[in-house]
Amino acid sequence: MKRIIVLWVFSMTLMSSFAQCGIENTAFKSGEFVGYDLYFNWKFVWLKVGTASMSTVQSHFKGQDAFRCSLITRGNSKLDNMFIMRDTLLSYTTLDLEPLYYRKGAREGKRYYVDELWYTYPKGNCHLKTHEINSRGEHYWKELEYKDCIYDMMSVYLRARNFDASKLKVGDKIPLPIADASSIANSWLKYNGVTNVKMKNSNAKFRCLVFSFIEREDGKNHELIRFYITDDANHLPVRLDMFLSFGSAKAYLTGYKGLRNEMTSKVD
Length: 268
What we know:
globular
């Protein structure tokens, strides 16, 4: 279930210096709120099993102007009978979307754990201080430094909202370095083109860019998610198809407010 949250994000190509780790934000503004319904395939029937909500506001982090983004997922009683899911993710970035801090607190099944990351950029490198609390309550701290920019599940999502897909061709792959407190994923995006997508819970239909999020593990490539983002200046995810070890799940957009740009991808 830990991978479910990874499935909400995608990114740009790697950059190699502090100044290049940021990107101009044109996709969202402070005060944006987005909601989703979560569905799980149970014995060939799609059941609504929970909700997710994401909010972004302008704030401060250690005296610096910053965006504060949070994602909350909550399973309902139907999902609790199979698998308890209570996840809360928090991220601070600069106004240019350079990562500053990340935290994930998650109860998944009988397991509760916490991941934390702190970012600094000495001499143009990306320095990570990590803190992990595992399901046994044990604390682990590490400090790592990279020449390339590193992101987490939330900061990469904000960066990706500003990704220009107009130059991509079907089949193009984009490297995606995402860290948690224990490792960095060997993963990437594959661009699959444009299609129209109808929401499950309404008659709304959107023209979307389609991407696959792929991770290499044990010498094999695994598609973890196929997701659909609006083909407009918002680049808002409206549907996510998740391929999990214990089944399939989907997330559908239910509502939004505070968008920065007009939703021109909506199809009549």
